Amino acid sequence: MNIAITFRQMEATEAMKVYATEKVAKLQKFLKQPMKTQVTLSCQNQVRRAEADVSAGGEHYHAHESSEDMYGSIDRLVDKLERQVRAAREVATANHKGAERASDRLLPASDD
Fold first, then answer.
1. 74 CB burial (10 A radius; 0-12, 13-18, 19+)
2. Rounded mean pLDDT of 63-79?
3. Which long-range contacts (CB under 8 A, 24 or more apart) does 100-106 make?
4. Which of 41, 67, 99, 105 has the most CB atoms within 10 Å of its CB?
């Protein structure tokens, strides 16, 4: 797992770096391959923006979030990424052979 944090137009604090790293690291449990993540934290005109690119094997995810609080932006950013990863995983498992019974698709539901 490789997580790089970049600060733009704001002071790089250790607390912010640790917080972002811990939050983004939780995404690894949803991924099969080791992830490589680039997180960019920036501040412009009192708007805090968090942006992340996650790569794991052949899978790529991107999200960004803006608000007045950087910690809130990071939380919502991780929520968006988690939602993307879960959705991609559901699609992948739905396409597996035997994921759905053929009889469920072919036979109409009987009303008893």
1. buried
2. 94
3. none
4. 41
> Over the chain, what is the mean pLDDT?
87
Distances (CA, A) of 96 to 34, 91, 100: 22, 9, 9
Token output for 31: 């991924």
Q: How far is residue 7 from each of residues 48, 52, 98, measured CA to CA in Å?
A: 11, 12, 47
The domain limits of the chain are 2-96
2-96: CATH superfamily: Ribosome hibernation promotion factor-like (3.30.160.100)
- Which among 20, 12, 87, 14 has a CA at the least distance from the CA of 50? 20
Residue 5 is predicted with a pLDDT of 94
Per the CB < 8 A criterion, the answer to whether 42 and 9 are in contact is yes
Q: CB-based burial of residue 15 (10 Å sphere; 0-12 exposed, 13-18 middle, 19+ buried)?
A: exposed
**What confidence score (pLDDT) does residue 91 get?**
79
